Structure to design on (596 residues):
């Protein structure tokens, strides 16, 4: 029988209700997720991107059994996240990261021993596994130091060590490199890649576009509780108008010039924005032409024109999608 | 990397892991010295002065009064408070996300708090006896010791229920602080409940320690006048209410765990 998808959700919603005030209470209702349909295959790194408040952490917590959905269904590794929790929890790991979430007064090794016992890691394997994960995250030398003496980066590594201690098939990583220095962030990304080589599926949320672009096989962009797009990085580039981008900048472009740019064959989108005293037009191109020379020829009367070509980045894709959803 | 196939948590191992964590944190955190080591000495000295020359059995009154004063906080509130700390430290989410039901983590804490409470009681005993220069004469020392441990378990049963409230809401500490003094006086930790206004008695009887403490005094103090129904029914009442509390706790924990997942308030602190 074929393996079930790592994650499969159908029309998943989550509504938060809260009350303010004591005598005269005011009820507020927030729709954090609005009908999420998502399938993630096993053995890959899946990236979930979205602005603050888009619902990324809510979705991560539902999938990792820390939150119940309001409606819809979610299956992780074939198990229902609401009714088959006892089967699912031993098979998944969750790394929420940050300064909290660890017992600071005791050392890293004891933190891991505690969780190894709660996860039922066999006694005979426990110490070996603890040594192995500490080594893997680069904390072997600091294993017997109290966690309160750890830097932010070391705590993050310990979070990850705890997440992989019991050998999960699927690991949820909620912004794993946030707040880390570049070296620690790079080491963390290297570790994530090595986990995938071992067959672990990764569900990653991040604000860093380059990180998602570098690591993820598929990416979903979540905005206002909905999946705005879900594809490979290349597919997402096509979705927003092509993988070539030419940016032009000057003290102004008239409507006829912008219309002429939009009419060029191969141009899928032209977006303008004020940039100080100048105007910047971003042109998305899905073909070999127009080239920068073609554009320069079209705007030959602009003596102060600045022009550059680059590959459409995931950040471009993300900003386009978020902007479209906002509009 | 090994997969978790075949891994399985066990109640006993999870409870032991929780006890071990408590011990490690106790040793690592010097603030615990105050309630567990220093406070019993002070309570013992104060109680000795308070009860001195108040009757032939003043020594037992002093030991019980100070002992309970020292232990009730350790055992009853320690159990709930630790869950509150889990919220503050952000360890509640990863702990609940583990396959072990949280109840067994709390059970480990409760058992540890019983032990640490007994250590506090022992310190009180040593202090009072040292100041007095002689140990009290107990009619049935072995029975008294057994009952003493049982009183701790009744306190722990209430603590377990309180821990469930801590899982449910970050405002549990507020509820605890409001009820702290009332509970302490109302269950007869320092003075027998029969000395309180009659209207307080039915409320006090809702709590297992009230019954257990009365039974303990009947056992340890010759001529003690407590509840009119006497030692035997005190014991029955203590066992019954403790069983009810533990039963409710087990059920409440399951519901509370479900409710916090519905509310999404696990990460609040």
């Amino acid at each position: 029988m074929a393996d079930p998808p790592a994650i499969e959700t159908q029309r998943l919603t989550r509504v938060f209700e809260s009350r303010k005030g004591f005598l005269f209470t005011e009820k507020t209702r927030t729709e954090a997720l609005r009908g999420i349909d998502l399938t993630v295959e096993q053995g890959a790194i899946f990236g979930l991107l979205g602005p603050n408040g888009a619902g990324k952490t809510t979705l991560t917590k539902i999938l990792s059994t820390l939150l119940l959905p309001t409606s819809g269904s979610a299956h992780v590794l074939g198990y229902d996240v609401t009714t088959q929790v006892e089967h699912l929890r031993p098979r998944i790991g969750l790394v929420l990261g940050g300064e909290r979430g660890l017992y600071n007064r005791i050392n890293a090794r004891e933190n891991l021993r505690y969780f190894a016992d709660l996860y039922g890691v066999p006694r005979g394997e426990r110490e070996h596994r603890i040594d192995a994960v500490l080594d893997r995250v680069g904390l072997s030398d600091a294993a017997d130091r109290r966690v309160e003496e750890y830097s932010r980066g070391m705590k993050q590594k310990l979070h990850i060590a705890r997440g992989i201690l019991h050998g999960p098939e699927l690991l949820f990583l909620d912004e794993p490199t946030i707040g880390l220095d570049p070296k620690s962030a790079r080491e963390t990304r290297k570790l994530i890649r090595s986990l995938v080589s071992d067959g672990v599926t990764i569900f990653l949320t991040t604000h860093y576009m380059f990180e998602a672009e570098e690591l993820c096989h598929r990416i979903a962009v979540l905005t206002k509780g909905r999946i705005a797009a879900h594809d490979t990085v290349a597919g997402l580039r096509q979705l927003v108008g092509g993988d070539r981008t030419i940016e032009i900048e000057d003290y102004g472009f008239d409507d006829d010039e912008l219309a002429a740019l939009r009419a060029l064959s191969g141009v899928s989108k032209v977006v303008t924005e004020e940039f100080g005293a100048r105007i910047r037009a971003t042109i998305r191109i899905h073909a070999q032409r127009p080239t920068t020379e073609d554009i320069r020829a079209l705007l030959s009367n602009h003596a102060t024109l600045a022009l550059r070509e680059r590959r459409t980045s995931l950040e471009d894709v993300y900003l386009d999608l978020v902007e479209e959803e906002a509009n | 990397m090994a997969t978790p196939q075949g891994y399985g948590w066990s109640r006993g191992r999870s409870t032991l892991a929780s006890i071990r964590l408590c011990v490690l944190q106790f040793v690592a955190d010097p603030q615990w010295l105050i309630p567990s080591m220093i406070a019993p000495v002070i309570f013992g000295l104060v109680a000795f002065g308070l009860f001195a020359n108040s009757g032939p059995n003043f020594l037992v009154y002093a030991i019980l009064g100070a002992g309970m004063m020292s232990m009730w906080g350790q055992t009853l509130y320690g159990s709930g408070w630790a869950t509150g700390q889990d919220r503050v430290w952000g360890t509640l989410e990863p702990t609940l996300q583990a396959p072990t039901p949280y109840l067994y983590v709390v059970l480990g804490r409760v058992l540890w708090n019983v032990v640490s409470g007994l250590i506090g009681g022992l310190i009180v005993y040593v202090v009072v006896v040292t100041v007095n220069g002689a140990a009290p004469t107990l009619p049935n020392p072995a029975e008294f010791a057994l009952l003493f441990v049982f009183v701790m378990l009744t306190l722990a049963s209430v603590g377990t229920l309180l821990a469930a409230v801590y899982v449910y809401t970050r405002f549990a500490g507020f509820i605890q602080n409001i009820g702290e003094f009332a509970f302490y006086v109302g269950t007869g930790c320092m003075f027998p409940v029969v000395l309180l206004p009659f209207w307080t008695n039915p409320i006090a009887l809702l709590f297992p320690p009230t019954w257990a403490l009365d039974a303990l005094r009947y056992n340890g103090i010759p001529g003690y006048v407590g509840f009119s129904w006497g030692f035997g029914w005190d014991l029955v009442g203590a066992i019954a209410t403790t069983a009810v509390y533990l039963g409710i706790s087990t059920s409440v924990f399951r519901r509370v765990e479900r409710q916090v997942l519905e509310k999404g308030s696990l990460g609040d602190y």
